[in-house]
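Case study: Thioredoxin domain-containing protein.
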Amino acid sequence: MPVTEVRSKQELDGLLRAKKMVVIDFFATWCGPCQMIKPEFDKISDEYRVDTAFVKVDVDKLKDVAQTHNVRAMPTFVIFKGGSEVGRIQGADIAKLRESIGKHAPAQTFSGQGHSLGGPATAPPPASSAAVSGDAAQALAPPVDESQPSGEVMIRMLDGKQVKLKFNLHCTVQQMQETVAKIAAVDPSKFRLMNGFPPKPLEEMGATIEACGCAGAALTMRMK
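Here is what the predicted structure looks like once written out:
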């Protein structure tokens, strides 16, 4: 079945009542990982028949639906069976998504070129990433003065991977952005860091991490 975009809460509620199983992709147009996994999600939907619906919800257009289903990051995939949530995958993890769908799929729903129900799920290789992590990522950040207040920031990179970094609270958004650019090997002028929900860009490059409330926050890279 092709993936269709839900236009209203009423439409989604109707699908949850009518279909044996519904797989929802909560996405955002600015979300890099969402765009990366979209072709694979489309492929999975083609492997199922009419008793399973594959839909997508734009969290910026249907904020009330995203909030109702407690969506805090994109992409988030939520699986409903018989109107009740039975599975949730946060992030662009196609292998986990296939595994969860296969676990809950109604009997004999596979068709076409997909793998057989109960057979091994063959996931495509993960997308390559220029991102580094751990100590290697921290080494690209400004040195941390342990005598000064500091905090950790979680960054969701364009490929969906998360990188945890530690900064002194007097460090600026500009320094944080330049660090992320080094990790991802991209031009710092080509993206913005997003904070909060709904996500808002950190525009004040001279603002400190403390002033913009980023200490302990989870930020997302967004291409301009």
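For the exam, be able to explain this: The chain is about 25% helix and 25% strand.
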